[in-house]
Amino acid sequence: MENVLRDWGGEFALTAYDEPSGAYMFIAIHSTRLGPGAGGTRMKTYATPADGLLDAMRLAEAMTLKMAVAGLPMGGGKSVIAVPGDLDPETRRRLLLRHAHNVHMLGGNYRTGPDMNTNSADMDTLNEVTPFAFGRSVDNGGSGSSAPDTAVGCFHGIVASVAHAYGDPDLTGKRVLVQGAGAVGAPLAEMLVKAGAHVIVSDVTLERVEALYDTLGVEVVAPATDIETECDVFAPCATGGVLTPETIPRLRCRVVAGAANNALSDPSDADLLREAGILYAPDFVINGGGAIHLIGYEALGWSQEQVERGLTGIGETLTEIYQAADAAGVSTETAAERLAYARLEAAPPKPGAPALRH
Ligand code: PHE
Predict the structure, then answer these.
(1) Which end of the chain has fewer CB atoms surrounding its CB within 10 Å, N or C?
(2) Which residue segments constitute the domains of the chain, with CATH numbers given?
(3) String of DSSP letters for 92-135
(4) Does this model's pTM top 0.85?
(5) Could you read off the pLDDT of 266-275 as tens digits, one per residue?
């Protein structure tokens, strides 16, 4: 616990234990320099409660960078509800309401939204207690799920990455492996198929890949071996931490470009990718589409056209980052972090807030 807190440069984390369910609840606010800390609510089972807290803190930090790079007036935060296992609907609802109460106590300095294992219906539930939830269902006055636009942003990012790696943005015949056929991976696979790519999909849940196999005719690989499948683009769209010193040598791709948050086990993994000649699209840049959707529509009053412009901008930002990384001889992760921190440092510090650490 001490190590977790010492290694993190964020503002603070809230912790709670829900006695009836055995769930641990965390809200981490990494930075409010550019605006309220914003980031989704993740529901997941962890090996230990400390792993859940660590995940919330790291994901909150990624949100700070994501907002800065996307030019959105928000800081970085994240919540984790670390559940002991599958929940019955009543317990799940009660936990969400309790989470909403915690969010509400932060008075708008933390704004949440959907993330892994939470959706628009869950944001509607939070909204019974607090207005500080993005991504409510459209019927309930929200902008709906952010996942489809996360996929659109990721698609633009893949095109820009292929253009940089191969000198041609055309996806026709390119082998793209989408790891995780969930709310983001499934629509991404569809867009890639439409663009002429040869799409390969893996997921720990068999029904999800079966559905894509039936509707799109994608190739299917087992999750155990997906990482070593020969492809042009590996697109991690499931859980984080899939790129590690152990897995990177097994990759057989030219580009890594996917929507999963915290795809690297550590930022230094980006150097390993660079040394292996693999172009890496920094996750907090390529997966900014959800944030652009939620904050664009709900906080900035953007039109669909403006949101679409923001999503296209993800590809342009990546191209700039690739050029900056090449020019400076650094990893794309380092170049992207430099861009984010330049934007953060250009904003005036909040009185009393800790200095930015990077
Ligand atoms: N959870 C998504 C993400 O990580 C969407 C989201 C963005 C949720 C911003 C809340 C705020 O980008």
Answers:
(1) N
(2) 2-64+77-134 (3.40.50.10860), 147-290+297-307+311-342 (3.40.50.720)
(3) HHHHHHHHHHHHHHTTTSEEB-B-TT--HHHHHHHHTT-S-BS-
(4) yes
(5) 999 999 999 9
